[in-house]
Amino acid sequence: MKRYAMVIDLLRCVGCNACTLACKQENHTPPGVSYNVVIPQEEGQYPNIKRLTIPRPCMQCDQPPCVKVCPVRATWKRDDGVVVIDYEKCIGCRYCMAACPYGARYFDFGENYTERGNEFERAPSPEYGQNRVREKGKSPIGNVRKCHFCLHRIVKGEEPACVQTCMSRARHFGDLGDPESNVSRLVKDRRAFRLRQELGTEPSVYYLK
Amino acid sequence: MQDKGLYYAYWVALLTVTLVGMGAILVRFTEGLAVTNLSNFVPWGLWVAFYIYFIGLSAGSFLLSTLIYVFGVKRFEAVGRLAVFTALISLVAGLAFVWVDIGHMERFYTVFYNINATSVLEWEIFLYNFYVVILLAELWLLLRRDFIRAGEGEGLAAQICRLLALGSNDVSPDSVKRDMGLVRILGAVGIPVAIGVHGGTGAIFAVVAARPYWHSGLFPIVFLVSALASGGALLAFLAAFFTKEGRRDRALVPTLGKLVGGLLALDLLLLASEFLVGLYGNIPEDMAAYNAITQGPYWWVFWAVQLGLGAALPLLIIFNGRTNVSPTWVGSACLLVVAGVLGVRWNIVNPGFSGQQIEGLGSAVLPTPRAFPITRLPSQLPEPTQWFFILGTLVFIGAVSVIFFHLLRQLREQRAGVLARSGAALGLLALILGSLWFIANNIPMSTAAAIGPSLTAILPIPKEYAATRFSSAYTPSLIEWLASAGIIGLAVTLFTLGIRLLPMEGEPVKEGAWHVRP
Asked: Do B459 and B440 contact (CB within 8 A), yes or no?
């Protein structure tokens, strides 16, 4: 059985935010909704300072706190480990956003970058293979949205947009179910860690530090 | 409301607020949640605070009504029906607030068939509905006989009462006895339900392990205690100013007031426990919440609304021998408690979003004004605000000292009070010293520098003032305020209509009736 996972090498990440933009282009996300962000962190004090950039997609937790709290079963974890949202079921209560320890969920307030939405913004988003066009009063406006490892791409055998675009090859995507896959080998690296593991969320996104 | 002019002014003001509010809700309905100032950092705001506020008022006043109908405390019988009716209206208002808060208002009914058994919110939705049924049934049983009696008359009120009697016409003492038996059963069933309704609402927050400020077993209990305090206070206020009985029986409101005072004190104890354990723990996300509460942009909600007006002042009035015999004084104090609990509710919801789930998350590139509340704020509070904060602390110490001294005077009259007196004096000393240390820690850096090294050596002023950033920065938008006013206006309208048209106070005391008082 497939178990999708991502490994991000922090020593390779240069913090260019290309993943952020590739994601926005792929999923046609509006202002305020950014499935991927690159978090800048600083350690130490001048002159002994170290800067770290941590790209943060959705962790696709194995024990997702967001799924547990949804009152309408609008979000769930698929067998392949990807946590998805049914835009037609979601009532927009935002409980999952409060429950997510990674801030990986976003609410679509219905805003556009341009006043009425330009050609790009009005183009359908390939998310979940549904090709939805964002229109006032209709889903996904008024819904919670999140990274889904570009499910529509991986079912076609492609990599998620952020992985494909990463110029320093910091991101690796693959199947943990296959012991020979790149990610299976990388997660065994002694540099591997996961964010906020202490909460028992069992993220599917690993980092190499 | 005997004065006709006042009566009309009341209605005009109420209906204006309600209509403007309805307009705002309409705007929210057509434009979506973009009209709010919520963000992806602060997904829950004013409406959620009002939601838990009204659910709390409802559960509190219902639980007090069970004192009468289940445990037979005849003392409060005069406000029994009012309590159940208030519980109903408050619950409806609370649910209205959740409804305007969800992203897809038209899908609200799906919660009844898309069931997720692991979601506390889902359990709550079912409990709320079960609770509504109990409230309606209980209220009808309480009012049934008076509906029939009032329905015999002429006019609008009589017609409504005839309609609401639902065809029942048995006014025999036996039927009343049966009614009260059923009310007792419903009340008994209602107790765990009401505890579930509000304790569970606390659990909605408490189960969120990702936010340490909420994630505490004490949280649902705090919800319940403050619910009881606010519910009791609302009843005392209504009894003092809106019922004949409250004016006739001069001891009723003060007795209710003492109950509220006790609950309020318990609430403060729980608050102190939460704070001390949280501060000692020193978890960054937790500390962010406590910083936001005590010195964030809404520091005044905590110091002035929640502690000053909502706790210290009412406690002074309720436990002062000169004021606590007057229904007007105690009723006003209770109104302050009702208002203060709103601050409690705000400080439950908003500070939960203060911390950044991952350090630096707030400064990640996310090109939108909405998602950037954190960068719009100064990293440190302006100096005047800090001085207000210190003033607030001083006022708080003063208020608490007065209470302490009052208690000391009470104890003096008892012989065994020596130990208790010295204990209380030590407590007061500790409080004053602790507060001084707290103030010293919060003196603005520039002032500390001006004071000079001599004083800074004595006072434990930190060398480097911790720059605190508040990512929970969120100011409710105008539409949010107006829509809230609309819902509250509607609730008050319904309440006023209920009081005017329904036999809320029952018939005049008569031989053989169930609520004969000795």
From this structure: yes
Number of folded domains that form chain A? 1
SS3 A107: strand
Determine the Cα–Cα distance for residues A146 and A29; give it in Å rounded to an integer. 10
Contacts of B353 in chain A (CB under 8 A): 98
Q: Which residue has the higher pLDDT, B449 or B374?
A: B449
Per-residue pLDDT reduced to its tens digit, B238-261: 888 887 777 778 888 999 999 999
Q: Which residue of B has its CA nearest to A90?
A: B104
* Chain mean position to CA A57: 3
Distances (CA, A) of B98 to A108, B41, B87, B118, B391: 18, 19, 17, 20, 36
Q: Provide the pLDDT for residue B2.
A: 52
Q: Tell me the nearest-neighbour CA distance from A54 into chain B, angstroms.
A: 9
For the cut 90, the answer to whether the pLDDT of residue B485 exceeds it is: yes
Pair B245, B79: CB distance under 8 Å:
yes
Q: Which of A133, A105, A108, A137 is nearest to A121 (CA)?
A: A133
Kindly state the average pLDDT of the residues B75-99. 91
Kindly indicate whether the ipTM for this predicted assembly is greater than 0.90, answering yes or no. Answer: yes
Q: What contacts B97, CB < 8 A, 6 or more positions away?
A: B47, B48, B50, B51, B54, B484, B487
Question: Which residue, among A72, A106, A111, would best test binding to B if mutated, counting the most B CBs under 10 Å from its CB?
Answer: A72
Q: Which amino acid is at B409?
A: R
- Does residue B235 register a pLDDT over 50? yes
Cis bond before residue B284 (omega within 30° of 0): no
Q: What is the pLDDT of residue B478?
A: 81
Is B359 in contact with A137 (Cβ distance < 8 A)? Answer: no
Q: Does the CB of A96 have a partner CB in chain B at under 8 Å?
A: no
Cβ–Cβ < 8 Å for B304, B481 = no
- The confidence score (pLDDT) of residue B376 equals 30
Tell me how far apart the alpha carbons of residues B37 and B376 are, in angstroms, rounded to a whole number. 14
Of A31, A42, A97, the CB nearest to B43: A97
Q: Tell me A128's DSSP state.
A: G
Per residue in A111-160, pLDDT tens? 888 777 788 888 999 999 999 999 888 989 999 999 999 999 999 999 99
Give the one of A70, A106, A139 whose C-beta lies nearest to B119's C-beta.
Answer: A70
Nearest chain A CA: its distance from B504 CA (Å): 36
The CATH number given to whatever domain includes residue A104 is 3.30.70.20
Contact B208 A69 (CB under 8 A): yes
The pLDDT value given to residue B63 = 93
Percentage helix, strand, coil for chain A under 3-state DSSP, each rounded to 5: 20, 25, 55
Alpha-carbon span B201 to B219, nearest angstrom = 10
Residue with the bigger pLDDT between B384 and A12: it is A12
CA-nearest residue to A51 within chain B is B360
Q: What is the pLDDT of residue B35?
A: 83
Q: How many CA atoms lie within 13 A of B319 on its CB side?
A: 24
Between B58-72, B106-120, B200-214, B385-399, the lowest mean confidence (pLDDT) is in B385-399
| Residue B182: both structure tokens together | 């059923």
Residues of chain A contacting residue B207, judged by C-beta atoms under 8 Å apart: 69
Cis status of the peptide bond prior to A140, with omega within 30 of 0: yes
What is the residue range of A28's domain?
Answer: 4-208
